[in-house]
Structures are given as structure tokens and as C-alpha cells.
Amino acid sequence: MDLGLAGKVAVVTGSSRGIGRGVAEFLAKEGCDIVLHGRDKAALAEVEAAVKKAGRKTLTVVNDLSKDGSHQALVAETQKAFGKIDILVNNAGATKRGDFRQLTDQDWKDGFELKFFSHMRLAREAWPLLAKSNGSVINIAGIGGKEPEAEFGIGSSVNAAIVAWTKALADVGKKEGVQVNAINPGRVETERLWRRIRDRVKTSGQDEAKVRTEFQNEFNITRFGTVDDIAGLIGFMASPHGRWLHGTVIDMDGGEIRGC
Predict the structure, then answer these.
(1) CA 144 vs CA 1, 78, 140, 167: distances in Å
(2) How far apart are CA 149 and CA 160, in angstroms?
(3) Rg of the chain over CA atoms, in angstroms?
(4) Confidence check: pLDDT of 191 > 80
(5) How high is the pLDDT of residue 117?
(6) What does the CA dihedral 106, 109, 114, 117 come to, rounded to 10 degrees?
(7) Phi first, then psi: what are they for 258, rounded to 5°?
(8) How many CA atoms lie within 13 A of 131 on its CB side?
């Protein structure tokens, strides 16, 4: 299927690794010019090379979205380079895990600042360009917002807030021509998941295959997800084929969370 994305400009935050990298590379193959964003210049250089290999233009912006002025700089550089934004994928940010009695006020502030506020502020800054292009915003939250875990109190709270804000922003988008949706990814094969698998291999003494099977059974999922799974959904959402999707939140998790 031709997604009809050729010539679009996509801004993908947190694109140096994991889901963000997969999304950036997928959209480039679909014909989008890509604005890469992250805090690791060396890692972003690898993704930039992949985008250029796909024959697309790219802009790399290195900054920390939890810092003042970073959102304005990202949008300003994008406007200067491309003159527009068609797709904004808000993906940046990971929160600290742990017992809430040990997590500090600063841990909570950092979690909301890096993930929730970075999403909101960047969308607000990019909104005039998105409205001009009748663009699309896709916010990456997570299933933790629907099924909170004791050790993931910050992340679960942030993800739930992103979902609520997505619904509110979608109401604005209806009036101003900007499509707004969100995705709750489940257990995707990224470094974060691999860290948990390696930790259990180390503590249990079991081999990796057995630990992977244990995790899959514990999560009650059909399989672990891939970054391409999420990227493909984002590509469809932002394409003309998925334009009727609006104000929705899709759980993509291999059946871990029961939908209705």
C-alpha cells in the first residue's frame, strides 16, 4: 500500500534509538523528510545516515526538551529548513522506576517535565505550522497508563496524563484541521525491554530463551512487539488512509490490555 506520505515533513522526537529511531527510518522509506531530535549526537548521526540512504532530506536537532527554549529552537530550525511541519511524533522521554516511598519530588517533576510537558509544549509551539498544513500529531504514551504497576508510578501517571491531554487536544484539532491521536505501546523490543531480560537472566541463572518465554507468559501476550509494528501504525495514522482516525488512543500490545 502506498501511504501517500511522499514529500511530507515529519518531526520525530527521541529518534536516536528505540521506537523513535524505528519511526524516523520507516517514515523516510515512505518518502518523508525527517527532523531528528534527541540528546545523543552520535546516535542521531547513525539515524541520519539511514534517512539519507532512503533518499530523503534530514535535519538533526540536538537538545533537551525539558529545558527552556528547546521547543522553540526545534520548531524554528524545522521551519527554516523545510518551511512546514506535516507530522509531529511526540516520543521523547523515559521516567524513573521505583518504590514511591523512595522516589523524590524531583523524580516526579523530572518525569512529567521530560515526557508530558515536552509533548505539550512542542505541540503548542508547532501548532501554527500543523494547522497550516492540516497536519497530524501522534503522541506516544504507554499501556502503563491503563494498567499501573507499583514500580512504575511515575510512568503510569505520565502516560495517563498524555492520553487525557490527547483527547482534549483532539477537540481543538477538529476545529482547526489538525489530526490528533495517541498510541499506547506494550512490550516492544527496545533496549529498555532488553535490560529487564538481561537482569532476570543474571539473577535467575536461566538462559535467555527461557526468560523471554517467562516474560511473554507473564504479560499474556501473543509476542513481543517491534519498532516496525509501532512505526507502521504511525505511518497509517498520518496517511490519507488513516485520516478518519481522530481523538483515538490505540493500545498496540499483543493483547496484554483487554480492550472494549
Answers:
(1) 32, 32, 12, 17
(2) 13
(3) 18
(4) no
(5) 94
(6) -160
(7) -75, 120
(8) 13
pTM (two decimals)? 0.93
Grid coordinates representing 24 are 524516523
**Would the pLDDT of 50 be above 70?**
yes
Task: Say if residues 78 and 59 touch (Cβ distance below 8 Å).
Answer: yes
Contacts of residue 214, defined as CB under 8 A and 6 or more positions apart, other chains included, come to 200, 206
Instruction: Tell me what the mean pLDDT of segment 113-119 comes to.
Output: 93
The residues near 15 (Cβ < 8 Å, ≥ 6 apart) are: 21, 23, 24, 34, 36, 37, 38, 44, 47, 91
What is the end-to-end Cα distance of the chain in Å, rounded?
Answer: 28
Which H/E stretch holds residue 87?
A: strand 87-90
- Residue-wise pLDDT for 196-211, tens only, equals 778 887 888 888 888 8
C-alpha cell at 129: 505550522
